[in-house]
Amino acid sequence: MQIAHFTERPVRYLAEEPVLANRAFFGVSNKFFDREKSAHDYNFYLDEACFVEEVGFDGIALNEHHGNPFCSGSVVNIEAAILARITSKAKIIIIGNMLPGVKHPLRTAEELATIDTISRGRLVAGWVRGAGSEQFFNNANPAYNREMFNEAHSFIMDCWTKDGPWRYEGKHFHYRHVNPWVKPYQEMPQQWIPGVLSAETVMWCAEKQYPYLGLGTALGPTCDLWDMYADKSAELGYQAGPENFGYLLPIFCADTDEKAQELGKGFIFGGGQNAFSRPEHTLPPGYNSKSAIRMLGQQPGGSWLGVSKEKLMAGADDSWDASAYDALKAKLIAGYDKAQDDMQIVVGSPETCAQKIKDILSVIRPGVFTCFAVQGNVSDKDRLRSVELLGKEVLPEVRKFADENELFGPFDRTPGSVKLAPGTKRAPVVDREALAKLNLT
Amino acid sequence: MVTWKEETVNVAGTDLALIRGGTGKPLLVLHDELGYTGWMKWNEALAQDRELIIPLQPGFGKTPKLDWSWRHRDIANFYQNVIREMDLGKVDVLGFSAGGYIAAEMAASNPEQLSSLTLVGPMGIKPDEGEIFDIFACTIKTCLRQTVFNKEAKEYSEIYGGDMSAEQFELFEDARAESARLGWEPYMFNPSLPELLRSAKNAKLPTLLIRGSEDAVVPQDCIRKYHDALPQADIITIKGTGHRPEIEDSAEFVAAVKHFLA
Question: From B184, which residue of chain A is nearest by alpha-carbon distance?
């Protein structure tokens, strides 16, 4: 198993009210940007990543978002490039480069190859379509999102494998002279693809033999999706295994359960992940496939990324009643408890965390496990203590469990390397009995 | 009552779904960026002495998307071939909002093909003052509310009242997706259009510009800039209406259009 640490690098000096008043992180005005405090945070998060490596994590995972204080990382490749130089062992895992939003795959190919070269082969690349709100921020046409993603990915693969100079005239991208001097240090970096329950992305990963990383998705639907991956893999002649799957989970560890519970409330700061963006920014027109929209339309009670048809239909109400703050906080805290009951957030002492993580691993059997550090205004000291406890006390337990249960990571066993003869029944990739024992659906 | 029907015609390289109703000289009607809303009072009134031909824009759910198309100008070119291949002769065109944008592109490309041009709250030209409302950055309901000033208009609630069916939801999303594909950037305008309209100006193409006085989608300045490009145009402002004067005050709207087309 490969175990990584991830943080959104939250803006920690921001009060909660502006986020609640905006009803989302996306769109909170950058008038709240604080130069000095941001300089501290950007440097701290790099130092924290070094500490992550020091206490024994295998990888440092990074992402980027735009136009909001949920994630201060806006140019992930710059941070990754710094880490390439100031760390020495850990994989630098980018989850991921937002190909349709960046709109310049040649530049992306060069940046990533530079990171891989400086780090002497520690890059794990990852590709994302970008959240709905990113399409607005980057003015990326959502109706071409999937097309641009596929074309940019294919182009980058060519950049990394073909000798130049060559010419490229595609649909969305055009380059008359392709000859990036820098190529990856590795013959081909691994590519891990994060997702939140998009069936199309899962099928694409299975076709490419890329590990799929579920981003804190509910365990039941995660099992369904991984079965879908494994079925497709079997069709394509290989047995999917733990090396094909990763999982990212919000985890916060403290010396005592009580302290962890208090600080772990940072996960619901401002409404947490569910308040990342408003419904109208989450599903821009054309961003989702026709089948996904049909599914949404036919399930009025259902939802897609937390956005129901009902919410999409609702009119925007820009009013904000400060007196409603206490009621909202109470609702958020109730949500915090439920998220823990549903094992969507793990918070506690090292013993508590280790047991819950093992329970989750027993169900979905991933080969990559990523600890998503707490959001909100948690101090440097408390964040580092969580990293330390996880690294020194929880990780050894989790590794032991992974070894006993043959949870091979993609660096232990190459994804796609276990061949399956045509007509052979594939082995299970998840344990639904273990899921039933957790009383989760 | 005028009878109208929906039919599919294989024309200009695709199976074009369209609504036909009424008798008389053809009036090509181009619906807006949210799609065709059904046969309303204004359709009925205009169909008394005209044959209304209302193509359901490709990619809006009924007519297949034209994968080769990139911009509203391409859809204009497509409709020009529809006119030719259906032998409609020289036609009057009435376009609403983004449909007006397409109609203006048709006029710019080949004004001789048209008898007249009526643009209702047309997108297509960047205003110097104000912005064309971003329909992609709001929920469907907010978008619909933005389009109408007179929310008491009977037909507004007839079209949009009640629960939205799964089919309606899907059609709306199809329309929004295709409008985004064509008009995301630059947002619902063609920077070249004012200059391209020189051909329609030189041809003295009879033009009518209609705007609701309270239009919250297309700023007044868009009309001014259309008028700069097409100085021969008449301008009618319908008081107390927003972006949908045809349903908010259909009597005024119909009178203006009939007078112009007479």
Answer: A141
The residue range of the domain holding B226 is 4-261
Are A286 and B145 an interchain contact pair (Cβ–Cβ within 8 Å)? no
What is the domain-level CATH number for residue A53? Answer: 3.20.20.30
Closest CA to A95 of A128, A138, A49, A60: A128
What is the ipTM score, two decimals?
A: 0.94
Best B69, B135, B169 member to test A by mutation, with max A CBs in 10 Å, is: B169
Within 8 A of A281 by CB-CB distance, chain B residues are: 137
∠ at Cα B255 (B250, B261), nearest 5°?
A: 120
Question: What is the number of other CB atoms lying within 10 angstroms of the CB of residue A187?
Answer: 9
Interval B97-113: pLDDT, tens: 999 999 999 999 999 99
The domain total for chain B is: 1
- Give the one of A136, A296, A309 whose C-beta lies nearest to B137's C-beta: A136
Question: Are the Cβ atoms of A142 and B170 closer than 8 angstroms?
Answer: no
Provide the CATH number for the domain around residue B218: 3.40.50.1820
User: Nearest Cβ partner of B184 from A141, A313, A314?
Assistant: A141
The average pLDDT across A213-228 equals 94
What pTM value is reported for the model? Answer: 0.94
Question: Do the Cβ atoms of A150 and A208 come closer than 8 Å?
Answer: no
